[in-house]
Amino acid sequence: MKKTMAVIMSVLLVSTVAGCENTSLNKQDVGTVTGGILGGVLGNQIGGGTGRVAATIGGTLLGAYLGGSIGKSMDDVDRMKMNSALETTRTGQTTSWVNPDSGNNYTVTPTKTYHSAGRPCRDYTTIGVIGGKRQTIYGRACRQPNGSWRAVN
């Protein structure tokens, strides 16, 4: 379950960070869908018996709301800073920034660095304070040939 949550959240964050070059979905849409999936999975794991359906629905709605707010909040500057953090920050150290336009702030901490299929990859934790609300995301990304970082499954 923990691994599934990490994969889903990495898709949310890095899709938001890297953008989808060949799709009509915007970063808020990606965040909403991914957050909804994660929330539904989490709600299903937490709920029990007849409450499982309600927990799944509630988790889906809450996850979609939170994921959409993260996706909506990150702009080009934030994506650039996230890519830079994944590229240059040492494992265990934190990079932080405040977006001067939105006032949102983010911290990124790479937690593990390794190679997969000949590419450098990193696990990371991102904390975003968006509209005064703290949100934590756990992710995994690998460097692409063009130098950008993209979520991996």
Describe the structure.
The chain is an alpha+beta fold and 153 residues long. 48% of the residues lie in helices and 27% in strands. The protein has helices at 2-18, 27-46, 51-73, 76-88, and strands at residues 95-98, 105-116, 119-130, 133-143, 149-151. It has a five-stranded antiparallel sheet. A hairpin with a 6-residue loop joins strand 1 and strand 2. Helix 1 runs parallel beside helix 3 (51-73). The chain is globular and about 50 Å long. Residues 1-26 have low confidence and may be disordered.
Strand content: 25-35%
Task: Kindly give the count of domains.
Answer: 1
Largest sheet: 5 strands, antiparallel
* Shape label: globular
Order of strands in the sheet with most strands:
1-2-3-4-5
Q: Are there runs of 5+ residues with pLDDT below 50, and where?
A: 1-26
Can you give the mean pLDDT? 74
Distance between the termini: 14 Å
Separate helix tally: 4
Order of helices and strands: HHHHEEEEE
Structural class: alpha+beta
